[in-house]
Amino acid sequence: MQSHIRFDTDALELHLLDQRLLPMEESYCVCHNVAGIVRALQEMVVRGAPAIGVTAAWGCVLAVREAIFESHWSERLEALMESIAAARPTAVNLRWAVERMRRCRQQAADAEAGDLLELFMAEARAIQDEDVAACKAIGRFGADCLDDGDTVLTHCNAGALATAGYGTALGVIRGAVEQGKRIHVIADETRPFLQGARLTAWELQQDAIPVTVACDNACALLMHRGMIQKVVVGADRIAANGDAANKIGTYGVALLAHHFHIPFYVAAPLSTLDTATPDGAAIPIEERPAQEVTCLTGQPVSPDGVPVYNFAFDVTPAQYISGIITEAGVLHAPYGPAIARVLQEARPA
Ligand code: MRU
User: Fold this and answer.
1) In terms of pTM, does the model score above 0.90?
2) CATH class belonging to 138-346
């Protein structure tokens, strides 16, 4: 799959494959300014923790372009960058990417706006390229967690579409397939945005990896019947103690996996580890519009005005996680020291 996030350096615009329309339509949404980036993030033209981080980085490039002509361009730039970081609250990769762009700016404190544009483009490109490399390493480490003939359940879409390419959870599956293992994937449909039924099914079909879609509420039956050997999911934020936020429904899958003694893995790059958040209770959970739940393909399916819970994420406690697969290896419990160690080792000297 060619990259679904493409920056045109001549026109200074970001092209995003519109994930709201997949798999029916493959068309690109073009963002010219920060307002367009924030809208694309909030309306989920692009989604998935690492992918929104990469988008945020390119958004900061557009922020420089936008601020450049203003008299107080530095303050304006900071305000624009903060609006990008605040677009969605749960996935830490979004703020992580903006923080990295801020550091880049601090290192070039004396740079004119024109030079900053070049520096920001190089940094955004590095963030995008590093994410692909991280996903491939996750795939290599994670492949060893899967056995030939496994059926693997995944929830949501933690694939190429959710990253800069290759994927985290789907990276593990791709890695195992590249090792010659026969893997069958069950994609939970993932109500209400249907990341599994639409996106995971689409991208695995493109790679000819066998995939079957199941309703979210079929999980207990499938596990009870012995139809699932492993679970691999992505994450939006992993707290210092290993509690992991991911798409709503993941916690239920983890509890069922625990009940049926099925290994449950979380695959995520180091940029998803957040030691500033002590545990899952401190992770902010995004709540999204009611219409996502009460309407199907634009048609209402609930009585008008009914109250709705639309929490977009939940938190799986660390005790239910068999391993956290990162680009630096597979972490095991106790996760607190394992996370602290891996981040310490990854920090540049
Ligand atoms: O609301 P979304 O689609 O952005 O949620 C995405 C997920 O929950 C993914 O599983 C997570 O971001 C990991 S993506 C590699």
Assistant:
1) yes
2) alpha beta
